[in-house]
Each structure stands twice: as structure tokens, then as C-alpha cells.
Amino acid sequence: MMFDFHNTKDETEPFEVLIKRYYNHIQHVHVQEMDGEYLGTGDAVTKYVGSFQLLKDLGYNKWISLEVFDFKPGGKTIAEGSMKVLKEIEAKLV
């Protein structure tokens, strides 16, 4: 099963509750901003830190991939912005 941040927007429970509940089934994590834009265009750093901390605490060591819908900004811009956000999230994990 894939946990896809963007496709949880209609869920009423926090990401962490969903991750805990379905952790044993999660094999892949898709990450992007909640509005579908690439990382770095919104507030993923503040919204996703708790989820990534939980994944780390649970020992998740599988795929995490960036999902991109709009390629207009260009690969370099998308990659650099996304890596910056992922590094900011990683820096907040304990």
C-alpha cells in the first residue's frame, strides 16, 4: 500500500493516526504539497514533520518518492525545492 500525502486531504484523522493504523501495510510514501504542487511551494515542512518523525520512530526504511503533477517549473527547480524541504524536515527529526 502507498501512503500518499496529497490523497489524504479528505481524511478527518491526522496523518500520524493513519500512518500508525496502516503502518504494517505501507510500502511506499508519496510526498508533495497538499495542493498537489511540488515540495517547497507550501507548508509541507510544518505539516509533515510529525509524520516523518513517526515513520522514523517506527523504523520505516522503504520508498519515499516525490510526486509531481506540474512540470512547468522545470526539473532542476522542482528537484532543488523538494530536496531543500526534505532536508529541512530531516533536520527537525530526533
Describe this structure in words.
With 94 residues, this protein is of the alpha/beta class. It has one domain. It contains three helices and three strands, in the order βαβαβα. It has helices spanning 15-22, 44-57, 75-92; strands at residues 2-4, 28-31, 63-66. A three-stranded parallel beta sheet has the order 1-2-3, with no helix packed on it. Helix 1 links the parallel strand 1 (2-4) and strand 2 (28-31). The longest helix has 18 residues, at 75-92. The protein starts with a strand and ends with a helix. 19% of the residues are buried.
Global outline? globular
- Rg, alpha carbons: 13 Å
Enumerate the strands of the largest sheet in spatial order, edge to edge or round the barrel. 1-2-3
How much strand content do the residues show? 5-15%
**Helix fraction by DSSP (H/I, runs of at least 4):** 40-55%
Q: Helices and strands, in N-to-C order?
A: EHEHEH
Number of domains: 1
Q: Total number of β-strand segments?
A: 3
Compute the average pLDDT.
92
User: What's the N-to-C terminus distance?
Assistant: 26 Å
Largest sheet: 3 strands, parallel
- What's the helix count? 3
Q: Uncertain runs with pLDDT below 50, 5 residues or more?
A: none
Structural class: alpha/beta
